[in-house]
């Protein structure tokens, strides 16, 4: 028999759901302002940190490698991403942002009000506690 959640846990779960929904809405809006889908924006953001192998992108986004190929194709057609061989293993293709792709990823990050507004209300110590709690929840 499943245990019932206490009212506090129910409220926390609902609040997390609201945060996630707001994040996705803002991400989709910011992506649309740059004529990107949410998935394209997420891939571009991921690549702006470092070139990433296609399979690793699929694992990170929890989607099929064929979906990632389509996303990369569309980003590449717009001149935002390029494919290059992995220096460590020439058989592996890395996706990397072009200079324009890096600029677009930075513009996307800047247009996400979600992180700025609510988090700005928290002190540095509160943001640190929140980060550490979220990491614990995710087992990191």
TrEMBL record:
Domain (HTH marR-type) ranges: 9-139
PROSITE patterns documented for this protein: HTH_MARR_1, HTH_MARR_2
InterPro entries: HTH_MarR-typ, MarR/SlyA-like, Tscrpt_reg_MarR-type_CS, WH-like_DNA-bd_sf, WH_DNA-bd_sf
Pfam families: MarR_2
Superkingdom, taxonomy of origin: Bacteria
Annotated keywords: DNA-binding, Transcription, Transcription regulation
The name this protein goes by in its record: MarR family winged helix-turn-helix transcriptional regulator
């Amino acid at each position: 028999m499943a245990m019932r959640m206490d009212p506090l846990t129910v409220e926390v779960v609902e609040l997390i759901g609201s945060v996630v929904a707001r994040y996705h809405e803002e991400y989709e809006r910011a992506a649309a302002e740059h004529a990107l889908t949410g998935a394209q924006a997420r891939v571009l953001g991921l690549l702006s940190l470092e070139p990433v192998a296609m399979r690793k992108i699929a694992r990170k986004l929890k989607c099929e490698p064929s979906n990632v190929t389509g996303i990369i194709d569309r980003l590449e057609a717009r001149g935002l991403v390029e494919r290059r061989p992995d220096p460590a293993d020439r058989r592996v293709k890395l996706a990397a942002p072009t200079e324009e792709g890096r600029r677009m990823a930075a513009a996307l990050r800047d247009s996400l009000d979600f992180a700025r507004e609510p988090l700005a209300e928290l002190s540095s110590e509160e943001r640190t506690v929140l980060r550490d709690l979220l990491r614990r929840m995710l087992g990191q």
